[in-house]
Every structure is written in C-alpha cells, then in structure tokens.
Amino acid sequence: MFTLPKQIGLAELPGANWLMACLFTVHYLYRAIAAPLFLNPSMSPIHILIWAMAFCFQIINATCIGGWLAGYGPTTTKEWEGKALYIEAGMMIFAAGLLGNIYHDDELREVRRAAARDQQRKLKANQEQGKSKSVDKVYKVPQNGLFRFILFPHYLCEWIEWGGFWMIGGLGCIPARTFVLNEIATMTPRAVAGKRWYVERFGREKIGSRKAVVPGVL
User: Fold this and answer.
1) Per-residue confidence (pLDDT) for residue 136, from 0 to 100
2) What is the dihedral of CA 21, 109, 155, 169, to 10 degrees?
3) What DSSP string runs through 1-65?
4) SS3 category, 173
C-alpha cells in the first residue's frame, strides 16, 4: 500500500482502504504475534508440511487483499460513497468476532493452565506415594461462553470477524470473500474431526448436545 499506488499513478488511497488494512493488521498482530509468542501457555507440535501450507496460504491471501486495497480495488473516495452503513455494520461485526475470538482463545488457555495444574498435582502425589513419576496428560472440556453450545466457538468467531471484513469491502471484494470461504472450507472439517475426538475422549454424555462449530446446526 506504500509502493503500488505510486506505480499505478495514484496520489493517495481512500480512508476506507486504510481502515481495512488496519483491521487486517490488528487481527494478525493478535493471531500471529501476541497469541503464540506471549499468551499461549503451550502449543502442540505442528508438522512442517502443515506449517508450510499455512505459510503459503497467508502469503497469497495477504498479497491478494493487499493488492486489492492498494490499487486493484476502490481507488477514490467516490467509489466508497453510499457505503457508510455497510462499513459501520462491518466494523461492528468484525469487532464482535475479534473480541469473541480473543475471549474464547483465553478460555482455552485457562483450561490448559488448569489441566497443567491438575497434572502437576497428580505427579506430585505419585512421587510422594512412591508411584510412577509420570502421569497421563490431563484434558478438560471448556464450559464458558459459546463453549456451552459448541466445541469450537473460536472458529465461528473468526468467520464472523472476516465476514464483517468482507462486508466493509462489499460483495465485490473478491479477496475478502475468498478468504472467508477458504476459512469455512478448511476449518469446518477440523471442527467436525475435533468433535469426534472430544466424544471419544470424554464420552457423549459429557459432551451432551454441543455441536462442533455452529450452534444447533453442525
């Protein structure tokens, strides 16, 4: 957004373009920097192939959205006229999704901390009793917020967040639309598989009527 406009002869970009760029940046400051480096108490190992595929997707996605915002989408304030309502609604939806995402991520982190504390207590008890010095990893089912209804509310909140982003850009914002559809297409199977894991680990009675990712539906 600092180089392409000059290359195609644009003096400046509309404020709405910068707004969308700021929202995109805020999300990834949280998702790619704050969460993994400072907030998460632990992270499961990830296969290098999965990491490489995710990295490539993010590079392509950021390039597409950045290119649209920097010169291949709306380039004048006039093109944004009459869209104030959609922009405001999209911002509120994006904010609700981001805050929901952060809240449910924090719930997961707290569950992991509680499970780690229980594991340490069991290990200490075993050591005091002269038993095995190792214990199985402790797992818990999150209970707060939308976890009462679905097992992966942070996925749903992310979809809501990027749905709001797409609304700001409008139906013609193909990169934002593609991003939302890709997220739904890739995260839905993971949520369904994750629910199967929860049922196998805790039993259907413990999981109850919770769905995987959409309350009352899926």
Assistant:
1) 66
2) -10
3) --SHHHHTT-S---HHHHHHHHHHHHHHIIIIIIIIIII-S------HHHHHHHHHHHHHHHHHH
4) coil
d(CA 181, CA 60): 15
Strand-pairing partners, residue 211, are 150
- Calpha distance 106→130 (Å, rounded): 36
Separation between Cα atoms, residue 55 and residue 39, nearest integer Å: 21
Q: Distances from the Cα of 216 to the Cαs of 72, 128, 166, 210, in angstroms? A: 40, 47, 25, 8
pTM (global) more than 0.85: yes
Mark 115-151 as b/e (b = at least 16 C-beta within 10 Å). Answer: beeebeeeeeeeeeeeeeeebeeeeeebeebbbeebb
| DSSP 3-state of 147 | helix
* pLDDT tens across the length of the chain (218 residues): 888 988 888 889 999 999 999 999 999 999 989 988 888 766 667 789 988 998 999 999 999 999 999 999 999 999 999 999 999 999 999 999 999 999 999 999 888 888 778 777 877 777 777 666 665 666 789 999 999 999 999 999 999 999 999 999 999 999 999 999 999 999 999 999 999 999 999 999 999 999 999 999 99
For residue 218, the SS3 value is coil
Contacts of 126 (CB under 8 A, 6+ apart): 132, 133, 135
